[in-house]
Protein backbone atom coordinates (compact mmCIF):
# COMPACT_ATOMS: atom_id res chain seq x y z
CA UNK A 1 0.00 0.00 0.00
CA UNK A 2 1.39 3.38 -1.03
CA UNK A 3 1.12 6.46 1.16
CA UNK A 4 0.72 9.87 -0.38
CA UNK A 5 2.94 12.71 0.75
CA UNK A 6 -0.23 14.76 1.37
CA UNK A 7 -1.45 12.15 3.87
CA UNK A 8 1.90 12.07 5.59
CA UNK A 9 2.00 15.85 5.81
CA UNK A 10 -1.47 15.90 7.38
CA UNK A 11 -0.52 13.26 9.94
CA UNK A 12 2.89 14.73 10.81
CA UNK A 13 1.33 18.15 11.39
CA UNK A 14 -1.33 16.72 13.71
CA UNK A 15 1.30 14.61 15.51
CA UNK A 16 3.50 17.64 16.06
CA UNK A 17 0.69 19.85 17.30
CA UNK A 18 -1.29 17.14 19.13
CA UNK A 19 -4.28 19.35 18.41
CA UNK A 20 -6.50 19.11 15.32
CA UNK A 21 -7.48 22.79 15.38
CA UNK A 22 -3.90 24.08 15.44
CA UNK A 23 -2.85 21.51 12.84
CA UNK A 24 -5.68 22.56 10.51
CA UNK A 25 -4.63 26.18 10.90
CA UNK A 26 -1.02 25.33 10.01
CA UNK A 27 -2.19 23.42 6.96
CA UNK A 28 -4.60 26.15 5.84
CA UNK A 29 -7.67 23.92 5.89
CA UNK A 30 -10.77 23.29 7.97
CA UNK A 31 -10.68 20.85 10.87
CA UNK A 32 -13.41 18.37 9.78
CA UNK A 33 -11.73 17.30 6.51
CA UNK A 34 -8.42 16.96 8.35
CA UNK A 35 -10.02 14.66 10.94
CA UNK A 36 -11.60 12.58 8.18
CA UNK A 37 -8.28 12.31 6.35
CA UNK A 38 -6.56 10.96 9.48
CA UNK A 39 -9.38 8.47 10.05
CA UNK A 40 -9.08 7.22 6.44
CA UNK A 41 -5.32 6.85 6.90
CA UNK A 42 -5.83 4.78 10.06
CA UNK A 43 -8.32 2.51 8.28
CA UNK A 44 -5.96 1.98 5.36
CA UNK A 45 -3.05 1.16 7.66
CA UNK A 46 -5.16 -0.95 9.99
CA UNK A 47 -3.65 0.80 13.01
CA UNK A 48 -4.70 3.45 15.50
CA UNK A 49 -2.26 6.34 15.20
CA UNK A 50 -3.77 8.85 17.60
CA UNK A 51 -5.62 8.45 20.88
CA UNK A 52 -8.39 11.05 21.20
CA UNK A 53 -10.20 11.90 24.42
CA UNK A 54 -11.42 14.91 26.36
CA UNK A 55 -7.91 15.71 27.52
CA UNK A 56 -6.59 15.99 23.98
CA UNK A 57 -4.65 13.98 21.43
CA UNK A 58 -1.78 11.57 22.08
CA UNK A 59 0.38 9.41 19.83
CA UNK A 60 0.07 5.64 19.98
CA UNK A 61 3.19 3.46 19.50
CA UNK A 62 2.17 3.05 15.85
CA UNK A 63 1.77 6.80 15.57
CA UNK A 64 5.26 7.39 16.97
CA UNK A 65 6.68 5.09 14.28
CA UNK A 66 4.79 6.86 11.50
CA UNK A 67 5.82 10.28 12.83
CA UNK A 68 9.49 9.31 12.71
CA UNK A 69 9.27 7.63 9.30
CA UNK A 70 6.91 10.24 7.88
CA UNK A 71 9.25 13.08 8.74
CA UNK A 72 12.10 11.26 7.01
CA UNK A 73 9.99 10.73 3.87
CA UNK A 74 8.83 14.35 3.76
CA UNK A 75 12.38 15.62 4.33
CA UNK A 76 13.65 13.38 1.53
CA UNK A 77 10.93 14.59 -0.83
CA UNK A 78 11.69 18.22 -0.05
CA UNK A 79 15.41 17.64 -0.47
CA UNK A 80 14.88 15.89 -3.82
CA UNK A 81 12.74 18.76 -5.09
CA UNK A 82 15.36 21.31 -4.01
CA UNK A 83 18.15 19.40 -5.73
CA UNK A 84 16.13 18.91 -8.93
CA UNK A 85 15.51 22.66 -9.14
CA UNK A 86 19.27 23.19 -9.09
CA UNK A 87 20.19 20.27 -11.34
CA UNK A 88 22.97 21.28 -13.70
CA UNK A 89 22.83 24.90 -12.60
CA UNK A 90 24.96 25.40 -9.52
CA UNK A 91 26.36 23.80 -6.39
CA UNK A 92 25.39 25.20 -3.00
CA UNK A 93 28.17 24.92 -0.39
CA UNK A 94 27.09 25.51 3.23
CA UNK A 95 29.73 27.11 5.43
CA UNK A 96 29.59 28.39 9.00
CA UNK A 97 29.89 32.17 8.89
CA UNK A 98 33.33 33.31 10.04
CA UNK A 99 34.99 29.94 9.52
CA UNK A 100 37.22 28.45 6.79
CA UNK A 101 38.10 31.77 5.16
CA UNK A 102 41.56 30.69 4.02
CA UNK A 103 40.32 27.32 2.79
CA UNK A 104 37.46 28.90 0.83
CA UNK A 105 39.70 31.56 -0.70
CA UNK A 106 41.81 28.75 -2.22
CA UNK A 107 39.07 26.22 -2.87
CA UNK A 108 36.81 28.36 -5.06
CA UNK A 109 39.46 29.27 -7.68
CA UNK A 110 40.89 25.72 -7.56
CA UNK A 111 37.47 24.26 -8.29
CA UNK A 112 37.00 26.51 -11.32
CA UNK A 113 39.89 24.60 -12.95
CA UNK A 114 38.09 21.25 -12.52
CA UNK A 115 36.51 19.71 -15.67
CA UNK A 116 32.76 20.26 -15.61
CA UNK A 117 32.90 22.76 -12.76
CA UNK A 118 29.58 24.42 -11.93
CA UNK A 119 28.81 27.77 -10.37
CA UNK A 120 29.29 27.63 -6.58
CA UNK A 121 26.95 29.49 -4.25
CA UNK A 122 28.42 29.87 -0.76
CA UNK A 123 25.60 29.65 1.78
CA UNK A 124 26.71 31.20 5.08
CA UNK A 125 24.91 29.73 8.06
CA UNK A 126 24.87 29.67 11.85
CA UNK A 127 26.35 27.25 14.36
CA UNK A 128 25.57 23.62 13.56
CA UNK A 129 23.18 24.40 10.69
CA UNK A 130 25.19 22.78 7.90
CA UNK A 131 23.85 19.25 8.49
CA UNK A 132 20.23 20.38 8.38
CA UNK A 133 20.83 22.28 5.15
CA UNK A 134 22.33 19.14 3.59
CA UNK A 135 19.47 16.92 4.73
CA UNK A 136 16.88 19.37 3.45
CA UNK A 137 18.57 19.55 0.05
CA UNK A 138 19.18 23.28 0.44
CA UNK A 139 22.91 22.58 0.16
CA UNK A 140 24.82 20.06 -1.94
CA UNK A 141 27.94 20.03 0.23
CA UNK A 142 29.10 21.56 3.49
CA UNK A 143 32.28 22.37 5.33
CA UNK A 144 31.89 20.94 8.83
CA UNK A 145 34.12 20.59 11.87
CA UNK A 146 34.71 17.55 14.00
CA UNK A 147 34.08 17.19 16.95
CA UNK A 148 31.53 20.02 16.89
CA UNK A 149 29.25 19.28 13.91
CA UNK A 150 26.91 16.36 13.21
CA UNK A 151 28.19 14.32 10.24
CA UNK A 152 26.11 11.15 10.82
CA UNK A 153 24.76 9.71 7.59
CA UNK A 154 26.97 11.75 5.26
CA UNK A 155 29.96 10.87 3.14
CA UNK A 156 32.94 12.96 4.23
CA UNK A 157 36.53 13.69 3.31
CA UNK A 158 38.96 15.14 5.85
CA UNK A 159 40.65 18.33 4.67
CA UNK A 160 42.51 19.98 7.55
CA UNK A 161 43.58 19.24 11.11
CA UNK A 162 44.49 22.30 13.15
CA UNK A 163 45.07 23.45 16.69
CA UNK A 164 42.89 25.90 18.57
CA UNK A 165 43.61 29.40 19.84
CA UNK A 166 42.06 31.62 22.48
CA UNK A 167 40.73 34.89 21.08
CA UNK A 168 40.70 37.47 23.85
CA UNK A 169 40.92 41.24 24.29
CA UNK A 170 44.29 42.55 23.13
CA UNK A 171 44.67 44.64 26.30
CA UNK A 172 44.14 41.69 28.65
CA UNK A 173 47.29 40.39 30.47
CA UNK A 174 46.76 36.89 28.99
CA UNK A 175 47.17 38.34 25.50
CA UNK A 176 50.91 38.69 26.19
CA UNK A 177 51.32 34.97 26.85
CA UNK A 178 53.01 32.74 24.25
CA UNK A 179 50.64 29.85 25.03
CA UNK A 180 47.72 29.05 27.32
CA UNK A 181 46.05 25.93 28.71
CA UNK A 182 42.35 25.20 29.09
CA UNK A 183 42.74 25.26 32.88
CA UNK A 184 44.27 28.75 32.74
CA UNK A 185 41.44 29.97 30.52
CA UNK A 186 38.81 28.54 32.85
CA UNK A 187 40.44 30.27 35.84
CA UNK A 188 39.93 33.86 34.65
CA UNK A 189 36.87 35.20 36.50
CA UNK A 190 36.82 38.54 34.68
CA UNK A 191 36.88 36.94 31.21
CA UNK A 192 34.46 33.99 30.88
CA UNK A 193 34.22 31.72 27.88
CA UNK A 194 31.43 32.61 25.46
CA UNK A 195 28.79 29.88 25.25
CA UNK A 196 27.46 28.66 21.89
CA UNK A 197 24.12 26.80 21.62
CA UNK A 198 24.33 23.01 21.64
CA UNK A 199 23.25 21.04 18.59
CA UNK A 200 20.49 19.39 20.63
CA UNK A 201 19.27 22.79 21.87
CA UNK A 202 19.97 25.08 24.78
CA UNK A 203 23.28 26.35 26.11
CA UNK A 204 25.86 24.56 28.26
CA UNK A 205 26.05 25.76 31.88
CA UNK A 206 28.59 28.43 32.74
CA UNK A 207 29.10 32.08 33.58
CA UNK A 208 29.95 33.21 30.05
CA UNK A 209 27.53 35.12 27.79
CA UNK A 210 25.23 33.21 25.44
CA UNK A 211 26.12 34.00 21.82
CA UNK A 212 24.69 33.05 18.45
CA UNK A 213 26.81 34.70 15.78
CA UNK A 214 30.29 35.96 15.01
CA UNK A 215 29.47 39.67 15.17
CA UNK A 216 28.03 39.28 18.67
CA UNK A 217 30.98 37.38 20.11
CA UNK A 218 33.50 39.66 18.35
CA UNK A 219 32.09 42.73 20.06
CA UNK A 220 31.90 41.01 23.46
CA UNK A 221 35.60 40.07 23.19
CA UNK A 222 36.58 43.58 22.10
CA UNK A 223 34.69 45.00 25.11
CA UNK A 224 36.54 42.67 27.48
CA UNK A 225 33.43 40.68 28.39
CA UNK A 226 34.30 37.25 26.98
CA UNK A 227 36.90 35.08 25.30
CA UNK A 228 36.56 32.32 22.73
CA UNK A 229 38.49 29.15 21.82
CA UNK A 230 38.40 28.47 18.06
CA UNK A 231 40.37 26.76 15.29
CA UNK A 232 43.51 28.70 14.43
CA UNK A 233 42.41 29.48 10.86
CA UNK A 234 39.30 31.28 12.12
CA UNK A 235 41.48 34.16 13.29
CA UNK A 236 40.99 35.66 9.82
CA UNK A 237 37.98 37.58 11.21
CA UNK A 238 39.79 38.99 14.26
CA UNK A 239 39.49 42.69 15.00
CA UNK A 240 42.39 44.97 15.92
CA UNK A 241 41.10 44.81 19.52
CA UNK A 242 41.57 41.02 19.58
CA UNK A 243 44.60 38.82 20.25
CA UNK A 244 45.01 35.11 19.50
CA UNK A 245 47.04 32.82 21.78
CA UNK A 246 47.56 29.08 21.08
CA UNK A 247 45.87 26.75 23.58
CA UNK A 248 48.27 23.82 23.90
CA UNK A 249 45.86 21.24 25.34
CA UNK A 250 42.69 22.12 23.42
CA UNK A 251 41.53 19.22 21.22
CA UNK A 252 42.48 19.57 17.54
CA UNK A 253 39.71 20.41 15.11
CA UNK A 254 39.25 18.54 11.82
CA UNK A 255 37.63 20.32 8.90
CA UNK A 256 35.72 18.03 6.53
CA UNK A 257 33.67 18.38 3.40
CA UNK A 258 30.38 16.47 3.67
CA UNK A 259 27.72 15.50 1.13
CA UNK A 260 24.78 13.12 0.75
CA UNK A 261 26.01 9.56 0.09
CA UNK A 262 23.66 8.92 -2.84
CA UNK A 263 24.96 11.86 -4.90
CA UNK A 264 26.02 11.09 -8.47
CA UNK A 265 26.91 14.64 -9.46
CA UNK A 266 30.15 14.96 -11.41
CA UNK A 267 30.25 18.67 -10.57
CA UNK A 268 30.08 17.84 -6.87
CA UNK A 269 32.77 15.17 -7.28
CA UNK A 270 35.02 17.85 -8.75
CA UNK A 271 34.37 20.14 -5.79
CA UNK A 272 35.31 17.38 -3.33
CA UNK A 273 38.50 16.57 -5.26
CA UNK A 274 39.47 20.23 -5.31
CA UNK A 275 38.79 20.55 -1.57
CA UNK A 276 40.99 17.56 -0.74
CA UNK A 277 43.79 18.90 -2.95
CA UNK A 278 43.62 22.36 -1.40
CA UNK A 279 43.60 20.86 2.09
CA UNK A 280 46.77 18.94 1.32
CA UNK A 281 48.46 22.00 -0.17
CA UNK A 282 47.86 24.23 2.87
CA UNK A 283 50.39 22.35 4.99
CA UNK A 284 47.72 21.63 7.60
CA UNK A 285 46.32 18.67 5.72
CA UNK A 286 45.67 15.29 7.28
CA UNK A 287 48.96 13.31 7.13
CA UNK A 288 49.06 10.59 4.46
CA UNK A 289 45.44 11.32 3.53
CA UNK A 290 44.60 9.73 0.17
CA UNK A 291 43.17 11.97 -2.50
CA UNK A 292 39.57 11.27 -3.35
CA UNK A 293 39.29 8.67 -6.09
CA UNK A 294 37.21 9.40 -9.14
CA UNK A 295 35.06 6.37 -8.48
CA UNK A 296 33.97 7.23 -4.94
CA UNK A 297 31.41 9.74 -6.18
CA UNK A 298 30.07 10.02 -9.68
UniProtKB/TrEMBL annotation:
The keyword Transcription regulation applies. Residues 1-60 form the HTH lysR-type domain. Keywords: DNA-binding, Transcription, Transcription regulation. Signal peptide: none annotated. One of its GO terms (molecular function) is DNA-binding transcription factor activity. It comes from the Bacteria. GO terms for cellular component: protein-DNA complex. InterPro entries: LysR_HTH_N, LysR_subst-bd, WH-like_DNA-bd_sf, WH_DNA-bd_sf. It holds the Pfam family LysR_substrate. The keyword DNA-binding applies. Belongs to the LysR transcriptional regulatory family. This is Transcriptional regulator, LysR family. It comes from Actinosynnema mirum (strain ATCC 29888 / DSM 43827 / JCM 3225 / NBRC 14064 / NCIMB 13271 / NRRL B-12336 / IMRU 3971 / 101).
